[in-house]
Design a protein that fits this description.
With 180 residues, this protein is an alpha/beta fold. 32% of the residues lie in helices and 14% in strands.
């Protein structure tokens, strides 16, 4: 009797739940986008919609911003292609001339939007993108660089061999107080 009993695989997370989590945002537009791309990911055989849905469900800390210069660099020499960024598109003052380009993003900073529109480009939203290219044809999916100050502190202990982890120090004010 006891030999036929097995381990309950669903208990104690032996089989983890790998489904997409429900978005925790209070932004109604964002919730509607998640609903739309859930439908598109299910009904179309496009990997593009699944990736966009996954990125829409990410926390804001993991949706790294991308600059106009990086978008322009990736679209260099590609005509009729829409850059899709599931993040905020920011301005880059170092770039003097912004080329004509079509960019789809969750949000644009005011100055970035002005510069793209002044160059004769377009700033579109994800609902507009779903109408124009529901399977992601003629699009280029982009992400911002994964640079956060907090990431420098993660990893093996700073004193361990071969570690490049940044040391946590108290603020300069605290250090001055301690030395007195």
């Amino acid at each position: 009797f006891l030999s036929s009993m097995g381990i309950d695989l669903y208990k104690k997370t032996r089989i983890p739940n790998k489904g997409n989590k429900v978005t925790k945002t209070k932004n109604l537009y964002h919730k509607l986008l998640v609903k739309l791309y859930t439908f598109l990911a299910r009904r179309t055989e496009s990997k593009f919609n699944q990736v966009v849905l996954k990125r829409l469900n990410q926390s804001r800390v993991n949706r790294y911003p991308i600059s106009v210069s990086r978008v322009a660099k990736n679209l260099n020499g590609k005509e009729g292609i829409t850059a899709v960024c599931v993040c905020v598109v920011t301005d880059d003052k170092r770039m003097l001339v912004v080329p004509k380009m079509t960019v789809c993003a969750l949000k644009f900073t005011e100055s970035a939007k002005k510069r793209i529109l002044a160059a004769g480009g377009q700033c579109i939203t994800f609902d507009k993108l779903a109408q124009t290219s529901p399977t992601g044809n003629n699009t280029l999916l982009l992400r911002g660089p994964k640079h956060r100050e907090a990431l420098k502190y993660f990893g093996p202990a700073p004193s361990s061999k071969g570690s490049h982890t940044k040391i946590r120090l108290p603020s300069k004010k605290s250090r001055k107080r301690q030395s007195l």
